[in-house]
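Q: Hi! Curious about what DNA-directed DNA polymerase looks like structurally. Here's the sequence.
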Amino acid sequence: MAYQALYRKYRPATFDEVVGQRHIVQTLKNAVVQNRIAHAYLFCGPRGTGKTSIAKIFARTLNCTSENNDRPCGHCENCRMALNGSHPDIIEIDAASNNGVDEVRNLIDRVKYAPMEGKYKVYIIDEVHMMTASALNALLKTIEEPPEHVVFVFATTEPNKVLPTIISRCQRFDFTKVSQKDIEYRIHVICEQEKIAIEDEAVSLIALLSDGGMRDALSILDQCRAYCENKIHVDDVRQIYGILTKEDIGSLFEKLYQQDVEDVIRNLQDAYERGMDMKRLTSDFISLLKESIILDYSPNSTLVGERSKSVVQKYMAASPLPFRIRLLDELMDTYNKYPYASNVLDYLETALLKLISQSYEHEKAAEKSEIRYSNHANTASKSHESTSDKSEIIEKKAKKANKIAKKDSKAESDVSRETLKQSEIPNHKIIFDDEYILQLLVGSDKKIRKEDEYKYEDRILYQTDPDYGKYAGSLNTSSIFAASDHYLLICVNTEMEANEINLTEEKESYAPFMKKLIGKPKKIFAIDMNQKQRVTKDFVKRMKEGTLPSPVDVTVPMEEEKKPENTEENELKKIFPNLKVEED
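A: Let's find out. The predicted structure is below.
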């Protein structure tokens, strides 16, 4: 016997075997039980969603002679003839090749004859939108007042091309795309019957590629079965359909985050030359970024598969949320432009380069006038002091240096040459040593960072505030890198911006503004993108090695609350809380 394609072999024979479309199936079953059969039906929806299959099942149900409620039974004479395609009263017409007025006139002539075997004569007209307007108009009168024994079922993927006068005379059923879950379940059932070994991830990918079409899903499964010998792996499906693995996308993200332009472009071009689908790559990239954001807020979420969790943890976890959101926006915007793109690869490359360019440092400050907060390794080995103690010493020395500078801007303070250097104010610069930033990262809390990020977005609302506008404006382009109860480690594009923020923190303190903005006074530490990437890489490496430093202890100086004056009026108000004092 010749090989039969899976979508034909496993075409549903009863309503119960139909995947999805429960609302349509239930309506048709009820119509048969209640004997409320309409004279014309219009089935419309995407391809491969069961329009023709349900039309055939409905036709068999109408002519089934079984007295039970499980019609069509599949055993009576009418059912057997219908399954063999030899039933004289179930007529299937392909409107794509029989769309003229002459064909319609022949159909009208045959309609008046009574059924030969069944109770109804059912006409299933597929792709009815392909019929000419004149042919549909010729059929109009017959559809409006057909003989009692005739039922028309029209199927179309484009109902907008069907004449409104035809649609108004039919009961319309809109078929929806089959859900991913339903397709996966059906594939598992068929693979079990066909003894096909297949990975769960391969099933999920096939369901995703089918785009809601059950027929397309089985066609893909058929092709994968022909390609693979023993077991269908997810990578086999990706190879056949030109899709990069999640591991590849994760690696691409890491190179993008590290600003490795050459590797990013080379990887994209290699994938393009291997025939990989750039639109699918963009879509999968968006999906993985979405999953990484879900995991940021819910690390144990069941909405994300184990493979995705592994990739996100390996390649994306160290990157800040704002960076991923910016990338997500860029990719979504680029994906919408693909229909008009002459070269999809150029569009994708440009989008990623645009994102990288936002991270580059545009200006570099002179190294002669910089203040460094550092935990120099040599100093640490000589003093044998604990990390937290040294951090406190560093902060005290910084404050001392600032006081000296204010007294005499021409004098240079020589405070611990290895940890702190300062040039003349106002030209001095504050840059934090990588080791100190690592200590801040170790002492940070991911949960606090997420809470603060949400409130931090409101800083734009204070830009015109007379008290806080200066502070809000200086933080306009910043994003939170890490946070704890007492401090925020923020990131800006350039070293110059970071220096300005650090100088403002040193001279005036952001603590009052932070209390207003996020509800708690916190100290601000600013770094640029280059240092952030360098420290992130070092943090991941040392975390694996178990050589991370101890967290730094940061205190936030705040102004003491003013105590109310001990006046006669205040004393009276203690006794009489509702007292109002008015002057004559």
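A: A fun detail: The longest strand covers residues 150-156.
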